Amino acid sequence: MIYWLGPTSSTPQQRTMAQAKSWVLKKHFEGFPKDSDFELKLEQLSEPKDGEVLLEALFLSVDPYMRPYSRVRMQEGDVMIGTQVAKVIKSNNHSFPVGCHVVGRCGWRTHTVSDGSDLTKVWDDWPQDVPLSHAIGAMGMPGLTALYGLEEVCAIKSGETLLVNAAAGAVGSVAGQIAKLKGCKVVGSAGSDNKVAYLKELGFDEAFNYKTVPSLEEALKKASPEGYDCYFENVGGPFSSVAIPQMKAFGRIAVCGGISLYNDTTPQTGPYPHMHMIFKQLKMEGFLVGRWEHKNEESLKRMLTWMQEGKLKCKEHVTVGFENMPAAFMGMLQGENIGKAVVKV
Ligand code: NDP
What we know:
Elements: E1 2-4, H1 12-16, E2 19-25, E3 38-44, E4 53-61, H2 66-73, E5 84-91, E6 101-104, E7 111-114, E8 119-121, H3 141-154, E9 161-164, H4 170-181, E10 185-190, H5 193-202, E11 206-209, H6 216-223, E12 228-233, H7 237-243, E13 247-255, H8 274-279, E14 283-286, H9 296-308, E15 316-320, H10 325-333, E16 340-344
Parallel strand pairs: 1-3, 9-10, 9-12, 10-11, 12-13, 13-14, 15-16
Antiparallel strand pairs: 2-3, 4-5, 4-7, 4-16, 5-6, 6-8
Helix pairs in contact: 3-4
Bound molecules: NADPH dihydro-nicotinamide-adenine-dinucleotide phosphate.
Residues 63-65, 142, 145, 166, 168-172, 190-192, 195, 234-235, 256-257, 259-260, 287-289, 332-333, 335, 337, 341 line the site of NADPH dihydro-nicotinamide-adenine-dinucleotide phosphate.
């Protein structure tokens, strides 16, 4: 149902103003999100004032973090949080002229009036052969997450063995490829045979479908009998309980995400990792990509070069239509995506 937030009749001046569609969190998620938790609203936007711009969304991101963050950062009735690639269509801010593209933390909206504080300009020299949507994917936050998890948290070295789960997704697929670029052996797990085939195509040394292997423990042992130096953790829960005992001594675990826990209504419990952590002297570190924001420009240039050289491949799972945002979000949480899940308006 579309709920109208604007006046019932409009003046000629108001008619020239932009109308925004937005998706709000109607009801906090309980367990897995459902259609009735979201509501599509219409809103009449005011003209951008001095220092402000009017944005039109081109691509919106649906990310796993929206599920846990909705509980801690949002109230019922708030616009769903999220980033988008948008075009500046009106500007009273010389930093963001009309026609330029930005990555904005605008939430799930088609149009936004912004003062620029929540915007990052897409480089003027963004290569024509690189889709703009990659600015919220491999050449944006998820790609940077992969890079920093490996370089800053794991400090991964050539010759080491990496385990990555949710490996065919936005972060995992980039993490595995970067580790290959660094001369590592890479083992990935994913939730379908198509995803496993994709990982092989990307150059992963070993890949398996965690949903169909008879034993996760055996699959991990078979993929790397000598164990794992580094573990890029996207999933958590029972997967990690099986993976942690297979770390080598002094192994490093980058705790990037725990998607198997995000929809829980009651917290899962052990087995607990302490004995393995102690006797193998493991290092386990959680991180948020924003910690290394000061390095983003240099990091993105590095990754863009890899991509243009054909060393880093990026797939997208594109859902067309702003009205399909909730479906795209829930589909991603269910594993429908290979690569980055985005919505094209
Ligand atoms: P993905 O593109 O990987 O999409 C999510 C994937 O998670 C699905 O495709 C699905 O793949 C998998 N999945 C869903 N439920 C489960 C489950 N119960 N068990 C195992 N796998 C599951 O998302 P992202 O690449 O954007 O994010 C990956 C992880 O990284 C998430 O945990 C996210 O929260 C985290 N993250 C952390 C950041 C940080 O700064 N720390 C920044 C960005 C992301 P499959 O078919 O393989 O099951």
